[in-house]
Amino acid sequence: MRFDTATAPHVTGHRDSAALMREVLLALVPGIAVNAWWFGPGVLAQILVASASALAAEACVCLARRRPPLATLADCSALLCAWLLALCVPPLAPWWVVATGSAFAIVVAKQLFGGLGANVFNPAMAGYAALLVSFPLHMTQWPQPGAAGLAEVWSAVLLAAPPPDTLTGATALDTVRTRLGLGEGLAQVYAAPAFGRAAGAGWEWVALAYLGGGLWLLGRGAIRWHIPVAMLLALAACAALFHLLDPQRYASPLFHLAAGASVLGAFFIATDPVTAAASPSGRLVFAAGVGALTYVIRTWGGYPDGVAFAVLLMNSAAPAIDHFTRPRVYGSGRDRR
Amino acid sequence: MLSAIAVVSGLAAVCGGLLAAASRHLRVSGDPVVERIDALLPQTQCGQCGYPGCRPYAEAIASGDAAINQCPPGGEAGVRALARLLGREPLALNPEHGPNKPPQVAFIREEACIGCTLCIQACPVDAILGAARHMHTVIAGECTGCELCLPPCPVDCIDLVAIAATPDTWRWPAPGS
Amino acid sequence: MTRPPAFAPARPGRFDGGLRLTRPPLDACAHIAPAPLPERLFVALRQHAGQAGELRVRVGERVLLGQALTRARNPDELPVHAPASGHIEALGDIAAPHPGDLREPGVTLRPDGLDERAPDAVVGPAFREREPAHLQAALAALGVAGLGGAGFPTARKIAAAGERTLHTLVVNAAECEPYITCDEALILRDATGVVAGCEVLLHASGARRCLIAVEDDRPRAIGALREALAAADDRLELAVQPARYPAGGELQLLQALLGMEIPAGTRPVAAGVLCVNAATAHAAGRAVLHGEPSTTRMVTVTGHGVARPCNLLARLGTPVADLIATAGGYRDVRRLILGGPMMGVALPHDQVPVTRAVNCIIAAGDADLDTLPGEQPCIRCGECASVCPARLQPQVLFAAARVDDLEAARAADLEQCIECGCCAYVCPSHIPLLAHFRHARSAARESARAGTTAARARERFLAREARLEAQRRARDRQLAERETRLRDAPDAKPRVSEVRAAVARARRRRAERARGQ
Q: I want to staple C384 with a disulfide (CB 3.0 to 4.6 A). Which of A73, A330, C287, C423 is the partner?
């Protein structure tokens, strides 16, 4: 009698990367819902366009590389990349913006580096950065809360007609930067109608929904605590330091946590394992770097938000961080390295 | 003008001194590249590469006279190791020099041996014992399986036998192969 | 590394990484019995870490139970003994319990069922009056070697301590792999024997105390040991460990028990700790107290592919097929695993004998096995690193091992991998990491071996070249000397005078010989 000769281990822990990706997608749903509630159904249109473009791009590259496209699409990584990018694009931007961005993210930032697992930079953020430098005007006009309905989305996104100026405006982060530049104090800026309790009106609720999804991921064990905690702590710490120095020029930590893509970045973007550092201590360093750089770029930089560039910069530092935070191997001397 | 000349000549003197000291204290004796190439060769001394032994082949590689894919006993893994050491592109094994064979050892059929000593003279690693008109035998542990004893034998009493894996030498297969 | 103080561990209680694994719903300890005598025993000549001894029996010879089949000529060798009385049927290669379906030298023995015992020198219960060296010699003569897997000869292990005093004897009964229960079964069958073995080893090693490590999910074994320990030496202590894989790994057990880390390339005895398996302690006790050579071992036969999971006390050399038959035969079996589900190797067939390293046979059915979905790319999630007991970075090792870059794998400390399989167990991309690492580790071993044979061949080649060169030079010198002598000779006919002189010398010698007679 002959038996099959598979190798050990003969049992497994039943974890699956595609299932992990699906969990992350699911965890984004509350944030998307709140986003759609406040800023209209534009975000759903963006997600649809981005997903279609990303899946098509991934399938084309797979065919070109002679890999089975269905198996690659089934790992859900392209879909996740598309959703994250779509959430960073203004809901009323024309459809070709996000389509170009997600195709760029998949083809250039992911597949040209070797596909899933081999990319150096977070594809969604690389796509976002490419869009920001290519189409700065389209990428900075966000709708006012409650202003955009289905009709506006139809004309602005799918027919690519520029939305009327009354519909859109700058984000809270943008407003703070431009008006501080004009010499106003923060107290005056906050009085503007676009502001809510903690940050821009609506933004804080979206952030709260992302936080809920992120905590659910933590509870499921899909992500580890190191990156979100370190990133948010570092961001809050930088903000607190400068806020204490001059509360009129530097926004409060709460504002920074609730504004922009802080929470989305901490739980969903910086936690991308492929482009982050690998060891727990390395991840703390990596995420603290993302948090601090986000603050620096927001406060002294010229872009609407700092998360994307902070993530990309720290992505490039991840191999070095990995090298210097390698745990000491069992039985090897303490002074090795 | 004078000061410039003084500075430049002083600089030249200092640099020259440093170079002289470096050439004396940091000198590398021998040709380390040849040593390192030789260390990667399997030392069968079979001559299939076209050189009379592994070291001459190593010297030929170092001087650029020979390609790195002429050693069948080293196999593809050997070519890869050489390519990595020398920073060259890995090549496929050149079939002109023969195929890569699994490890083997020479075995003399003693009833057929006439004791002519020709194989003893051919063996590059002195792995055959015997004297004139006395039966010869192979020290299996020292035999490199180079096949150089085959052509001189007038009665064809030497066989090369593949070495069977033992629990000590067995290798786990690569996954997916 | 300085030795940690014996009784003040640094941070005991935990080893790095590891997993919580669930035990299968099979109780192999419900049936513990001696395996019946098989028709033939296939005794491997080498069942320990070292070399096989010199064969001392001939085909057709009758041997007694416990008679030495081989003789140790040096400390690297260890004798094997006949597991039954009977006739030697054949000498030569027998099948080895090995995933590569290999053969190894062995003795085929046809038992006669009489179990007539060879007389042995018994040290007996008064072993404390003997020198530890005497006990060590008895252990070596009776072929006692580790029954935990590696098969290191126990006497050699103790002797490796040299002048160093051992402070702790650790007896490992922590069976962390699910399914394996042979040590538990041995304890349930003969806890006093295990404890007596611990006392013997305590005396033979000169250690100050003995810790018997058991996992906390084995209440029956803990109870049996407690009972046996009540009447034993009070230097013996039970150390209940949290059930966590791989708590039974030697390095992990020492880390959890004593908070000590064994530096790479050294053995625990160098740090003052002797670590043996519980079954080894039992065998040592039988050897010293009853003069019994080590010829049996407890084997767990389990899995959903076998009718009646059980633990069998088998003679070394019993075919696995016979054990399966004793366990009621196969029942929808897919894979035959030697060892546990995490590290065990799949055997191609069951016509292999039990050796000292065979602790568990799993006839695995579908309920025991997980079928992995296809492999996906590594996403560097770091789960593997977080469960690695050696604190390695499996994702880095994998990148090196996949392309056979042994140099990079060595730089990432491939040598420190204990092949526990935790990384492959948790990998969400289903990468066969353990298989990659086993391949790379055996390739590295093989390349090191090839390196030493190549170095020897190079030496012999260079020596031969030098010899040939010297011979050539000597011949040239002789020729040159002859020529100069001929050219520089004063008379024109040197040949004639030389011949005359030689003839004269010969005549003189002949005349002398004639006078002598």
A: C423
**Are A330 and C16 within 8 A, CB to CB?**
yes
Q: What is the pLDDT of residue B32?
A: 79
Residues from chain B that touch C375, judged by Cβ atoms under 8 A, are 176
pLDDT at C499: 76
Element (H, E) at C71: strand C70-71
Q: List alpha helices for chain B, DSSP H.
A: 2-25, 32-40, 54-62, 75-86, 118-122
- The structure tokens listed for B133 are 């008109």
Q: Can you read off the two tokens belonging to residue A156?
A: 């602005």
**End-to-end C-alpha distance for chain A, whole angstroms:** 51
Query: Is ipTM over 0.90?
Result: no
Q: Which two tokens stand for residue A191?
A: 């009085």
The arithmetic mean of pLDDT across residues A207-225, rounded, is 93
* Cβ contact, residue pair B38, C439, below 8 Å: no
Return the SS3 of A30: helix
pLDDT (0 to 100) of residue C490 = 63
Please answer yes or no on whether C461 and B124 come within 8 Å at the CB atom. Answer: yes
Count CA atoms closer than 13 A to B7's CA, side-chain side. 4
Tell me what pLDDT residue C517 has. Answer: 63
Helices C182-205 and C219-230 cross at an angle (nearest 10°) of: 30
| Average pLDDT across chain C, whole number | 89
Task: Enumerate the β-bridge partners of residue C345.
Answer: C338
Q: Name residues of chain C where pLDDT drops below 70.
A: 1-12, 489-496, 517
Distance from CA of B65 to the nearest CA of C (A): 22
- The DSSP H or E segment spanning C273 is strand C273-277
Q: Which of C51, C76, C352, C453 to mutate to test the interface with B (most CBs of B within 10 A)?
A: C453
